[in-house]
Amino acid sequence: MNWLNLAAGWLPEFFDGFLVTLALVAMCLPAALVLGMLLVLLRVSEKAVVWAPTYAVIEFLRNVPTFLLILVVYYGAPLLGSRLDGIYCGAIAIAVQHTAYLAEVFRGGVAAVPRTQWDAGRAIGLKPAGVFFRVVLPQAVLKVVPAIGNQVVVLIKDTSLVAGIGVVDLTLSGKLVMERTASSYEVFVVIAAFYLILTTIASALFRWLEIPAGKRR
């Protein structure tokens, strides 16, 4: 099968898988960003009873293979009485793990914010949480935009792991096409091109965010 026939005959199926991958990214990314910002507040606490268990959870999640975590959620959900579809099990596992990664990214940004910013926030009457979210965190995020961008690219690629639990995303749709056509090389080059489009757009967006607002065009 040549490239033209492959594109004409199976591109719609690739596109359906592409939409599932987009849906996964749309579910995982906002959840991981928001939860990561909340988790880092506990991580930078001065109270050992708060930061110590948070650190333990973050390290556990960062060091467990992503696919293993997906399997734990997928097979563990029925034991808890839940009947979640595979796509939601995959989204939960990926979002939870990337929450831990992003919490550490944000922690690095928080550490780079001068201590005087905390003191200034308290001086104008803000409570500790208010100082963190209104003064420190915005500055911290700006300092780690490149690292956030890298993590977003990794998250996009990690969505391909849901194929292992039967979710017909971009990767599994390619495998199904391959089984019907015996054109493994051509199929997976096309799949790689779809992922490249997604990651290139994400990388370009975060490179744009790195540019100071006054210099953007």
From TrEMBL:
<dbReference type="InterPro" id="IPR000515">
    <property type="entry name" value="MetI-like"/>
</dbReference>
<keyword id="KW-1133">Transmembrane helix</keyword>
<feature type="transmembrane region" description="Helical">
    <location>
        <begin position="187"/>
        <end position="209"/>
    </location>
</feature>
<feature type="domain" description="ABC transmembrane type-1">
    <location>
        <begin position="18"/>
        <end position="206"/>
    </location>
</feature>
<dbReference type="Pfam" id="PF00528">
    <property type="entry name" value="BPD_transp_1"/>
</dbReference>
<keyword id="KW-0813">Transport</keyword>
<keyword id="KW-1003">Cell membrane</keyword>
<protein>
    <submittedName>
        <fullName>Amino acid ABC transporter permease</fullName>
    </submittedName>
</protein>
<comment type="similarity">
    <text>Belongs to the binding-protein-dependent transport system permease family. HisMQ subfamily.</text>
</comment>
<dbReference type="InterPro" id="IPR043429">
    <property type="entry name" value="ArtM/GltK/GlnP/TcyL/YhdX-like"/>
</dbReference>
<dbReference type="InterPro" id="IPR010065">
    <property type="entry name" value="AA_ABC_transptr_permease_3TM"/>
</dbReference>
<keyword id="KW-0472">Membrane</keyword>
<feature type="transmembrane region" description="Helical">
    <location>
        <begin position="54"/>
        <end position="77"/>
    </location>
</feature>
<dbReference type="InterPro" id="IPR035906">
    <property type="entry name" value="MetI-like_sf"/>
</dbReference>
<keyword id="KW-0029">Amino-acid transport</keyword>
<feature type="transmembrane region" description="Helical">
    <location>
        <begin position="20"/>
        <end position="42"/>
    </location>
</feature>
<keyword id="KW-0812">Transmembrane</keyword>
